[in-house]
Specification:
Layout lengths: L7 H7 L3 E3 L15 H17 L2 H19 L5 E7 L11 E7 L11 E7 L4 H21 L7 E6 L3 E8 L2 E4 L4 E2 L3 H12 L3
Parallel strand pairs: 1-7, 4-5
Antiparallel strand pairs: 2-3, 3-4, 5-6, 6-7, 6-8
Helix pairs in contact: 1-4, 2-3, 3-5
Amino acid sequence: MAYSDLTLTEVRKRFQLTIDETHDLFAAVPSAALPARLRETLDENLPLAQGSNTEKARSELLIAPMLVELRRMVGHHIGLFSGVDFTVDEARGLSGFCDFIVTRSPELYAVTAPVLLLVEAKKENLAAGLGQCLGEMVAAREFNAREGSAVDTIYGAVTTGTNWKFLSLSGTEAAIDLLEYHVSAPGKVLGILQYMVGVT
């Protein structure tokens, strides 16, 4: 079993998680100031991504520019990885490729602890990606602990590029944000991402 095989029910049972879906987790997080270059990029890329309507196009044209801008906003103090193998414990289903991984280390050639944020791209169905993303978050927690760089909370996002759904994992408590955020308000999405990586 790999991350892509995990459902929300499977992750909850396998890793004995309590899941809360009732709170607006990031209401108090302010929107980030949106650089003009990102607005121009999104305006240019959105029709292309929607026209192609593939996960690859959405990842490259909408999600990657947001995450690259996040890295720029925090002074390049985070690492950003795309499409890398993140096998932590194959026997427990914590194996496979992650669409995007954000680390606290600015290293560029290898994923190093602590892993802070996992972003999973989906073509249309956000709900279908929640189990996969949460499984990756469990793996990140175990990877960080194994490397001696545990953090209190691991964050995740499932996104179509146009819609974003955020998650958090603290111990055995997993929370799925009540709200979805749309790319039409990219400053809010960036503000939440910046909050998640804890770099200002």
